[in-house]
Backbone:
């Protein structure tokens, strides 16, 4: 009588080569990617995540910067006090005005500069460097130079009188000081936007433009229906970065104030960042200042979300 092996018996009898978990991880592309990202994640957690958690915790405390050990929990009192402070709303309004004016302008100017630098022109490498230099130049140095250029009676202020503006020292005027800060921000940020857009423009498939030319599309139509949609993710990145940096403007305002009373003249350049610095650092009320930082964080998150929705709808 023949005896047949049970189903699967042969398979079980074969030796199975075990692969170590370390080898499995080493062969994984995701694991390698996380490994290379680990140094950045550690630094990000140490320099940004941990301080934010600390600030969030302090925002519920009555904490003096000089005596943090004696901090005591007070619940939402800091937040309620801020929300009843008209100075905070003025600071938020100034920050919003800066972002609403400066971010779109620097985005458009950066894109136009990138389109120009993407053309075949002589010496464009030199022009790229010249346009990018303001971005890597010290903000204090740029502000100091602009303060000399925008003094009353200078050729710059006289030029702007052609557009109905007054011939005054911009950074010393309550009507013009905030726009002086916006001009500084636009001047410095355009170089970064240009480089980002330029790298993206060089990746746009040439076939799309050739197909558009065959179909009789004008240069404007090619820009509108090919370039702009293709650059939409880059535009979101540029706008998001500029928005965050716009809300974080501090050096220009400190230079204008000559490190005296921040927000000079007469609070015309007071922003959310200077509001936090005044209350959290100068007045040493770190709990109150931390509450302002947390509110500031959520303001940026909401605006970034709205920007994403707006760009998605336009796309």
Residues:
């Amino acid at each position: 009588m023949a005896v047949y092996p049970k189903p699967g018996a042969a398979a079980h009898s074969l030796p199975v080569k075990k692969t170590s978990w370390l080898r499995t991880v080493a062969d994984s592309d995701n694991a390698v990617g996380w490994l290379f990202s680990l140094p950045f994640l550690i630094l990000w957690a140490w320099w940004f995540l941990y301080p934010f958690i600390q600030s969030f915790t302090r925002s519920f405390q009555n904490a003096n910067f000089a005596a943090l050990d004696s901090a005591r929990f007070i619940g939402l009192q800091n937040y309620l006090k801020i929300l009843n402070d008209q100075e905070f709303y003025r600071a938020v309004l100034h920050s919003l005005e800066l972002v609403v004016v400066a971010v779109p302008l620097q985005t458009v100017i950066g894109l136009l500069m990138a389109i120009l630098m993407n053309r075949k022109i002589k010496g464009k490498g030199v022009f790229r460097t010249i346009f990018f230099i303001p971005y890597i130049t010290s903000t204090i140095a740029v502000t100091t130079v602009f303060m000399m250029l925008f003094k009353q009676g200078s050729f710059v202020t006289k030029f702007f009188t052609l557009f109905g503006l007054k011939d005054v020292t911009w950074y010393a005027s309550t009507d013009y000081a905030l726009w002086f800060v916006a001009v500084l921000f636009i001047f410095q940020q355009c170089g970064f936007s240009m480089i980002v857009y330029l790298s993206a423009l060089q990746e746009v498939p040439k076939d799309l433009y050739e197909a558009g030319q065959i179909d009789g599309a004008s240069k404007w139509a090619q820009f509108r229906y090919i370039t702009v949609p293709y650059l939409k993710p880059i535009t979101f990145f540029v706008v998001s970065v500029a928005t965050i940096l716009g809300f974080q403007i501090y050096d220009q305002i400190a230079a204008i104030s000559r490190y005296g009373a921040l927000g000079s003249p007469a609070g015309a350049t007071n922003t959310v960042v200077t509001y936090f610095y005044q209350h959290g650092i100068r007045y040493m009320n770190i709990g109150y200042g931390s509450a302002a930082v947390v509110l500031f964080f959520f303001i940026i998150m909401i605006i970034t979300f709205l920007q994403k929705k707006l760009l998605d709808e336009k796309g």
Summary: The first helix runs from residue 9 to 13.
